[in-house]
Amino acid sequence: MIKQVGILFAALLLFSTCTSLEKDSPVDDQHGLVVIWERSYDTYNWSAYAPPLVINDSSLIYAGDGAIRCVTLDSGKTIWSSIFPTAGFMHKRFVLDQSRLYGFYQRDTVFAINLTDGTEAWTSIINSNREFGWVTDIDESYYYVGVNGYSNIKRILKYGKSSGELVDSIQVERMPWSVIYNRNRIYSSNGWSPPDNPNDIGRINCFSSDNFDTLWVYNTLHGGSFSLTPPVIENSILYAGTVWGGSLGNEIVALNAETGARIWRTTTTGCYQIVLHDDVLYCDLGGGILALDKSTGAHLWETHLPVADENSALAYWDGYLYNNVWGGLYS
């Protein structure tokens, strides 16, 4: 069993010195948050973008310490450390199945490591030399990753999960920052500039995972890029938000994941992350949180924080929202 626990687990169990909880007073009277154990970073002294993952209710995988590490859930004791020293830092989320974790390293290596001991299962060297997309994904047989390679050529690559062999690829117009798999479809989100238009606008492409045929394309109406907000898919509905819209504004949309038809659209100051719970969509604004009705996009409430952070992370747990902003944990 694999559980994505979000920034909350990182704040409470791993990096308590970076939260609003004090060491000499580990219990928050209002919410009952308790520091069970903590680990100090050995290398960079900063955290990664990807939320930690709980494996089989016994171990925890996290990154941002110059490695990807697996530790015991009850005590934080090291089980293994990845042989790829800086892997994982730029991942927005971990991608793994029951036996392996998949990712990219530096600017030219795609890899799989074994979850039992962190050893290399396979590596594949590609002509990247620039950057990988933050969000990658897998299906039953393949690993999908977006890349901006030599000569500024952007592609989505398809690797065999068992061997690491490059099976297929497709060239796309803009950098595929997020590549999401769902029901035999690949969804790629990015920024996009039409001809003779100086303003970036957002684009989501939907491809067949079998042959990369384009099934539909969605473009934002007035500006903003999907590059920092990975789409979220639930019950055949895709939710996504834009950033950097400037004077043209930003939007959050709900799309039919099968056809690309827009179900609703609402404007916002910018959306860096989407969390769904029951009938509510929560959007991380960078400096606050916006709650929307999931079915209609209607504004339910909005709250602002005293500081703003484009790399903030949002999680829902037990009736509360937790937002990690500039080293503080707000709930």
What is the element layout, followed by pairings?
Layout: E1 2-4, H1 6-14, E2 53-55, E3 59-63, E4 68-72, E5 78-81, E6 95-96, E7 100-105, E8 109-114, E9 120-125, E10 131-132, E11 137-138, E12 142-148, E13 154-160, E14 166-172, E15 178-182, E16 185-192, E17 201-208, E18 214-219, E19 232-234, E20 237-241, E21 250-256, E22 262-268, E23 273-277, E24 280-284, E25 288-293, E26 299-304, E27 313-317, E28 320-325, E29 328-330
Antiparallel strand pairs: 1-2, 2-3, 3-4, 4-5, 6-7, 7-8, 8-9, 10-12, 11-12, 12-13, 13-14, 15-16, 16-17, 17-18, 19-20, 20-21, 21-22, 23-24, 24-25, 25-26, 27-28, 28-29
Report on this model:
- The structure is a single chain.
- The N terminus is likely disordered.
- A hairpin with a 3-residue loop joins strand 24 and strand 25.
- It contains 1 helix and 29 strands.
- A 5-stranded antiparallel beta sheet has the order 1-2-3-4-5, with no helix packed on it. Strands 10, 11, 12, 13 and 14 form a 5-stranded antiparallel beta sheet that branches. Strands 6-7-8-9 form a 4-stranded antiparallel beta sheet, with no helix packed on it.
- It is mostly beta strands.
- The relative contact order is 0.09.
- The longest helix is centred in the first third of the chain and has 9 residues.
How many strands in all?
A: 29
Task: List the total number of helices.
Answer: 1
Uncertain segments are: 2-28
Q: What is the string of helix and strand elements?
A: EHEEEEEEEEEEEEEEEEEEEEEEEEEEEE
Q: What is Rg?
A: 20 Å
Strand neighbour order, sheet with most strands: 1-2-3-4-5
| C-alpha end-to-end distance | 27 Å
Shape: globular
Mean pLDDT, to the nearest integer, reads 83
Instruction: Characterize the biggest β-sheet.
Output: 5 strands, antiparallel
Strand content: over 45%
Structural class category: mainly beta
The percent range for helix content is: under 10%
